[in-house]
Structures are given as C-alpha cells and as structure tokens.
Amino acid sequence: MRFSIFVRWHACILMVFLAIGVSARVCYAEESHGHESEDHAAASNGDDHEHGEADHAAHGDDGHGDGGHDEGEAGHHDAEHDAFHIDTSAPPLMPDARLLIFSLVTFLLYVFLAKRFAWLPLIEGLDAREARVNRALADAEQARIEAEKLLADHRTRMSAVTEEVRGIVAAARSAAEKEKARVIAEADREAAALRDGALAEIDAARQAAMADLDTQVDGQANAAVDHLLRPRF
C-alpha cells in the first residue's frame, strides 16, 4: 500500500514537471517567434527607408525613372517574402539544451526538497500509521484469542455445572423414589397392623360374644330344665 502511494506520488510529480517543461518550451518558442517578428519589423523599416531614398534618386533621373521604380518594388516584395518566410520543416517541440538542463536542475532540486521536507515525514507518518494498524490488529487478534479462551472456559464450566445439576436432579429423584417407596412400605405396614389389630379386636369381640351367648344359653337351658323337672319332684 505504501509503495503504491509512493509510485503515484512520483508519477504525479513527473507529469507536473513534464507539463512545466512543455509549457516552458511553448513559451520559449513564442518568445523566439516574437523576437523574429521584431527583427522582421526592424528589417522592414530599414528596407522602406532605403526604398524611399531609391525612389528619390529615381525621380531625379529622367531616363531611368519608371524602370528603376518597378525594379525597386520587385526587390522590396522579394525582401518581404524572404523576411516573412518561416521554416515549417523543423519540429515545434525541438528539445533545447538550456531548457532541458534547467528542467533537470529544477527537478533534482524539487526531489531533494521534497525528500527532505515531504517524503520523509510522509513515509514516517505512513510507517507510524502502519505500526498503529498492526498494533491494533495484533491487539484485536489477542482479544479474539482471549475471548475464544474465555468462551471455551465458560462452555466447559457450563458443561460441568450442567452435569452437576443433572447429577443433583438424578440423586434427588432417586432419593425421592426411595422416600416414596419407604413411605409406601411404612403405610402398608401401618395399614396391615391396623387391619390385624382390627381383626384381632373383632375376633376377640366375637369370642366374647360367643362365650356370653354360650353362658346365657346354658343358663336358660338349665332354667328350662329346672322348670320342667320341678313339679315332678
């Protein structure tokens, strides 16, 4: 990531300096063309002055007036055509040694200053940011590992507690079943004892009633026998 930013930064700088070089070359070409135009104007003024003197001399000479005037105009037009003639065969962006040297020196100076005051702080800032990001990632990874450990420990404890609860529930259920069986057995014993006691009491009462009935029957039988036998004796 940092290398990509660095390459983009260099590419932008190179494009800026190429644009500056092209602009400077165009300006230099326009300036050269302006100087050529000024030189051409000065040459035209000189030709006009010479042409005026030639016309004055021609008017003074009656024998050569018309011929000299025509020849002077033809020479003047040829001079103008030569002065305004521009060589278009040369490329418009021909490299100039002075401009190249100036651009190279400027670029090297800019590289030195940028490296001194921009790139080094930028790289240091990127390194610091990368270190912070790495630390944050390491802390996050450590926190994730600790969270996973805590989660595993919690799951282990929950499993142990669940097993313990299941054991307690099973023991309580077993104890309840045993207590239920004991209570039922005791109730059965008590019921059997009560039943046996009641049966014994019923049997004793029956025996007592039978004995009392036997006694009464014997007494009544004896009384009846006595009643029947008493008049005879």
Provide keyphrases for this structure.
mainly alpha; about 230 residues
How do the helices and strands line up, and which of them pair or pack?
Blueprint: H1 2-60, H2 65-84, H3 97-229
Helix pairs in contact: 1-2, 1-3
Oligomer: single chain
Can you summarize the main beta sheet?
A: none
Overall, the morphology is: rod-shaped
Radius of gyration: 70 Å
The run of helices and strands is HHH
- What helical percentage do the residues reach? over 70%
Short note summarizing the structure:
By secondary structure, the protein is mainly α.
Task: Characterize the structure shown.
It is a single chain. With 233 residues, the protein is an all-alpha fold. Helices cover 91% and strands 0% of the residues. It contains 3 helices and no strands. It has helices spanning 2-60, 65-84, 97-229. Residues 49-77 and 79-87 have low confidence and may be disordered.
